[in-house]
Model the fold of this input.
Amino acid sequence: MHERTTRAIARWMFVACCAVPTGLTLLAIVITWTPWYHNHARHSVEDALALQTGLHVEIGDFERADPTTWRLYDVRLANAETLRTVATVRSLVWVADSENTVIRLSQPEIQVHALDQIADLIHDRFLCRPERTGVPVRIAADDLTLKSATTAQTLQDFDAYLETRDSVVWATVRCLPAGQRPDSDGLKAEITRDRSASPPRTSYSLQTGELSLPVAVLADYFPFLGRMGDEATFQGTAASTKQDGYAHAQWSLDLSGRFRSVDLGRLTEQLPHRVTGLASVTLDRCQIDGEGGVNISGELRSSEGWMSASLLPRVAEDLGCELTIATANDFSFDALAFRFDLYAAQLRVEGICRTQPGSEWLKAGVVVSSAGRPVVLSRDAWLPATNLARLVAPPHAVAIPLSSQTSGLLSILKPPRHSLPSLSPGASDVYQNGLVDGSGTDGRSGEGGSGAMNGNATVLQGDPASLRSGVIDLNAINRNAVDPAAMEPAARIGRVQPWGNTPQSVSQPY
Done:
């Protein structure tokens, strides 16, 4: 081959094998430095995370230091439909290799109202996905903040660890609420997914140890906790189990511990009878299974407060207590303490005011005392558990037959918001005075009915046997309704406070 031809071939080989690849490499580097490519890659990361989490993901910026390390900045997770914020993270470092995955969070904030979405995310997309739990995962943060509409709680030294042991996936979380002693054990939560069971079962547990956890921060997730007041705290253990394989997930609950600084005014503000003051509620045992079994035992104590006079006759009738003082006015109490046991279909209340400091001289069985005098005495008898519903029912409540056969209807039968109209013009005075309509299903008194009372009100005067059977003599009621002074308040749901859509506050002298 001629020398000139050889040189030409060599030059073209240099261009093809060296210059072109080098130029393409330089061009690729330049392209990756452009804002367009960076935004495209950021959107690709957002789409990948959104596909795995089921949430809308926004990332302010990102870096990839090496093939196993990602750094994300200004991360926002939102509901995919409403775009309502679920959680935000200022920065995130994700290191994944063949042996484990480590995620480091900086200043994460979680919205309490979205805890159910986060719980579903962890449960459905991680615990229930074997390919996602093949290697241990550790998530750590110096400070994690739970934010609700009215308050916030910071959890320090947040450390979560997820691993698989045989056929059980374990997720353990440890943290320390801000303001607690650094040497405290802190909170411990566990989530386990047992895949060996058929169908699989998920268990949750929480242990507060020696710490008292504010419950108001979880009010957006559990609205009932908000009714305990802003200062209420919980110390104890809670465990729950979710059983798959049913049309509706079967839940069971096992709770024991103490609620302190419970605001009775907030707790009873939506009930027909008001009680104010601060109380502590101790649950020695609270077991509720998915099939409706109930086993609850505990006590309630309050050292001072105010109580509606209308509550006294209901306590006497529905809880089987004895009244020692008759009063028509709301009154202050200096001791409110009782033990309660709710087992299966039975309820028992026992007064323990004598165990309160400064009330040791009271006799046994005192539930409420005022100015050092017993007001309510318990009889230590087992009663039907349905009496508890009667105690808190408003005057316009409608009673229905309750049994295992009718329990399925309770979710679709809506209670009335206001008092029901009278069945006959002649009985208008009866209803206005708060009497019960004893008519049956065919509109006649005591005939064709199921024996359930129409809860427009309660019988003011009559035979207790007829009250239990649900057969009420309207003629006798009308005769008694002529003389309001002859009416006994012990069988009325409300006597002092007028009824309306919004319960009225108990009057207090301060």
The first strand starts at residue 56 and ends at 66. Residues 161 and 510 are 52 Å apart (CA to CA).
